[in-house]
């Protein structure tokens, strides 16, 4: 989807999106007021953003193996680290939200599909240092930089699995009993997104939160989001435009919200 189409989609979202005053579901109201709209500061935010700033200055160049939908900003196999940091990493606003989600739900088993340079994995792990964090990355060179970043931030226990998701995801899922938090941020296409989501769904439970990135990035991702919302296991979804949150709360009325963020 081109930038003009995304802009008009965003305007539609802003006109339709709920604020906390429009929400009657106690679960969603608490989630919005205590997590999504939480502006309080955490010391971990500063440490991660210092790392981001250093990456944004890096002139190092690596060869990138892109197994997903590619980048709308970067072309070619060789890319500067600073360009990857500028275009592939989640903005600090969304990193902080990932932190608060893992903190709020005390996510013990966290999975991320799409490590990039490791910023979003660091935010999630920092939200619950006692939790187990695994991140899958298709490009081995990018994964190597992320691993160094984890070590520099005293989070070397973040497990990174380089390789094709079609090979690494089944291996990971075989090794765990349940999934508390999943961040889908790799291969932004309809069919792979649905396939990976369904694979992880087998390990979901009532308290799980699945986070889908760039749900309005393309018509294919919008179709994937609508398909996810329609899945019988899904009870509550929150559309934050650049991210979608998915919950599986049994006994909860099926509701889908567009929340201003």
What brief labels describe this structure?
261 residues
Describe the protein:
The chain has 261 residues and is α/β, with parallel strands linked by helices. Helix content is 44%, strand content 16%. The strands form two sheets. An eight-stranded mixed sheet has the order 5-4-3-6-7-9-8-10, sandwiched between helices. The relative contact order is 0.14. The model is unreliable at 70-74 (pLDDT under 50).
Quick description:
With 261 residues, this protein is an alpha/beta fold. It is built from 10 helices and 10 strands.
Secondary-structure map:
Elements: H1 3-16, H2 26-36, H3 43-56, E1 61-63, E2 78-80, H4 81-87, H5 92-104, E3 109-113, H6 119-127, E4 132-137, H7 140-152, E5 159-162, H8 165-174, E6 181-184, H9 190-201, E7 209-213, H10 219-230, E8 236-239, E9 243-247, E10 255-258
Parallel strand pairs: 3-4, 3-6, 4-5, 6-7, 8-10
Antiparallel strand pairs: 1-2, 7-9, 8-9
Oligomeric composition of the shown chains = single chain
Question: What is Rg?
Answer: 17 Å
Biggest β-sheet: strands ordered side by side in the sheet: 5-4-3-6-7-9-8-10
**Number of distinct helices:** 10
How many DSSP-defined strands?
Answer: 10
What's the overall geometry?
globular
The sequence of SSEs as H and E is HHHEEHHEHEHEHEHEHEEE
Strand residue percentage: 15-25%
If you average the pLDDT, what whole number results? 91
Main sheet record? 8 strands, mixed
Distance between the amino and carboxyl termini: 21 Å
Approximately how much helix is present in the residues? 40-55%
* Structural class by sheet pairing and helices: alpha/beta
- Residue stretches low in confidence (pLDDT < 50, at least 5 long) are 70-74
